[in-house]
Amino acid sequence: MSSGVEFVPVQRFPQPGEVVHAEGAFTRAAGGGGVVAVVLAELGAEVDFFLRAGPRPSDGQAAAAQLAERGVRVHAAWA
Fold it and tell me: Is residue 2 predicted with pLDDT exceeding 70?
């Protein structure tokens, strides 16, 4: 699992060549395994998710917390 995907909201989708300024940013847990784990938890399954968190512990902790908030039991090995 990657620790997260960064999202940058904009007021509207830019036209080709146009610059539209972001209005903040946020990161969400991501990666194929993380997505599947969340969907299974939402469907009522008991999900244990094992991961190795990357070099930035705060990102890994945030991702683990987001997965846990969605009903996934996270077991992490911190790098």
Answer: no
What does each C-alpha distance from 22 to 14, 17, 44, 59, 69 come to in angstroms?
11, 16, 36, 21, 27
DSSP 8-state assignment for residue 23: -
Strands 5-7 and 72-78: unpaired
d(CA 79, CA 54): 6
pLDDT at 1: 44
Query: What is the pLDDT confidence band of residue 44, given thresholds at 50, 70 and 90?
Result: very high
The residue-averaged pLDDT of 7-36 equals 87
Cα dihedral sign, 70-76-53-58: positive
- Say which amino acid occupies 70: R
Boundaries of every domain in the chain: 5-78
